[in-house]
Structures are given as structure tokens and as C-alpha cells.
Amino acid sequence: MQRRNNQFNPKRRLREHTEVDLAVCAELASKVSYGGNPEHKKNPGDFGLIPPSGPRAGKSLCDIAQIVSRKEALQYLKQGLTKGLISDRHKGQWPQNVWAVTGDGIPLEAQLENPESGSYHGYPMPPSDPMAEEVLQRWGRAP
Questions:
Q1: Dihedral of alpha carbons 130, 131, 132, 137, sign
Q2: 0.85 exceeded by the pTM?
């Protein structure tokens, strides 16, 4: 199911690359964790989610990006942080969103779920998301 453009959070913005401190991002990448969300999973893999999977209409599924392990999801999250693809909004030290791109060119978005622990859940960005192209362009220019 495709979302209409007006259903995407208009507050999401990539922090300008000139405003990103990559050393801070690398430090966060060393501490970040991945929790996951059953609404974005058709097959639960090794995510240990309760319920194991609960795909919800309108939610993009990690399965389409072939992300089936927590280790792989965490790797993408760390790569996004390390490259500085972070939100301009923060809760404490953690950016509200982190973006990455798979080897197959699928843009991913992670959302902060617990600012105490630095835990995120993520999902592939639908092509109808107006930010998807911006993430792809920034990823190609990132260090």
C-alpha cells in the first residue's frame, strides 16, 4: 500500500552536512542499538519481536529490502550515523531519525524509539516518500 505524500512526517529533515560532527556521529554509532518493530516485519527473522511479526497495512516492510537479521539492521543504522545522515531534531544526544541506503539502492529510515538507550527501529522508505531521493543523493556524497 502506497502512502500519499501528505502522510509523511513533514518535520523530518536531514541535518545539513556542514552542521554534522562526524566524530560525534561515530561515537553514537559505537553505542546505538536496534530494537525493531513487528509492524514492519512479515517474517520475524532473529529480531525477537513480540508479536513475532504483525505487518500493518500502510507500513513498509523490511522484507522488501531483504533485511532479515538484527545484525544487518544494526549495521545499516551504524553506517547511516557514521556517514552523518541524521535528523536535525534530537532527543538528548540521539537524532530523531537516521537514514542509510542498502547495497541494492533502497533508502532506509530509522526512528528513535528510546532516547534513554539509543534504540531505533527502521524500515525501507517507499518511493513515494519525498525524502527518499534526498537520502539517495546525500548517501552518494557522504564520506
A1: positive
A2: no
